[in-house]
């Protein structure tokens, strides 16, 4: 037996035919004045739901289009706001850096006035050993600027260290907190001598060791000022080192030892002043 051929009409053609039929019926209804007739009612039953469906689909597309546009606008506004926040953050960072730099320069100026009897050269720190503390570092001034070995270096409120090596346009400085450093010092109020030795491990607590304080009468107290002594062979006398933090009697019952709080912030150094007058030259 032969199979019967079935004719299949694509759905889009059926949809198009119904649309044409509805439009034709609507036109015929209103053109002939039979809007209330049977033809008009048939047209209403057929055309109105179809029209509503088209309107619903069109409305859905409009809503989606509006939502996509709103999303695009929101994303563009977010990007603009983020760019503004980034710009303000950068500007705020620059202002904070400038404020800190200004404060540092003011401290150097005040320090220059405090030790006005000495000639000085200002320098910036360009390199330092790894770690949190500026125990040894390099400055951007050297022999061409009059820098020489054993020149004293100051910053903040007092003594930083001493020049140990010099090049044409650079110099190396060892600070008083370095393990290799030892400074002859004295208590300002009593003139009793002592030694201040560097200790990076103790510096983690923000302190420097003080030892061999010849304070037989026990006059030195917590908070007393410690300065470089007149008997030092490399350091100028009277440079501020720090303030006594604690003291205890040594086993020999003759001297006292303890710690002091340095006058300089050895964690945030950027610029220094180099005293270009050598201690040996003064003595000569």
What does this structure look like?
By secondary structure, the protein is α+β, with helices and mostly antiparallel strands. Helices cover 38% and strands 26% of the residues. The chain has four helices and twelve strands; from the N terminus they run ααβββββββαβββββα. It has helices at residues 11-31, 38-114, 200-203, 279-283; strands at residues 120-128, 136-139, 152-155, 158-166, 171-175, 182-187, 193-197, 208-213, 225-228, 240-249, 256-262, 271-275. The protein has a six-stranded antiparallel barrel with strand order 1-2-5-4-3-12. Strands 6-7-8-11-10-9 form a six-stranded antiparallel beta barrel. A hairpin with a 7-residue loop joins strand 1 (120-128) and strand 2. Helix 1 (11-31) packs across helix 2. The mean pLDDT is 82.
SS-based class = alpha+beta
Radius of gyration, whole Å: 44 Å
N-to-C CA distance: 135 Å
What percentage of residues falls in helices of 4 or more residues? Answer: 25-40%
Main beta sheet: 6 strands, antiparallel, barrel
User: Outline, from the CA principal axes?
Assistant: elongated
| Percentage of residues in strands | 25-35%
The stretches of 5 or more residues where confidence is low (pLDDT under 50) are none
Based on DSSP secondary structure assignment, what is the total number of beta strands? 12
Give the SSE order as H and E letters: HHEEEEEEEHEEEEEH
- Provide the spatial order of strands within the biggest beta sheet: 1-2-5-4-3-12
Name the average pLDDT. 82
Number of helices: 4
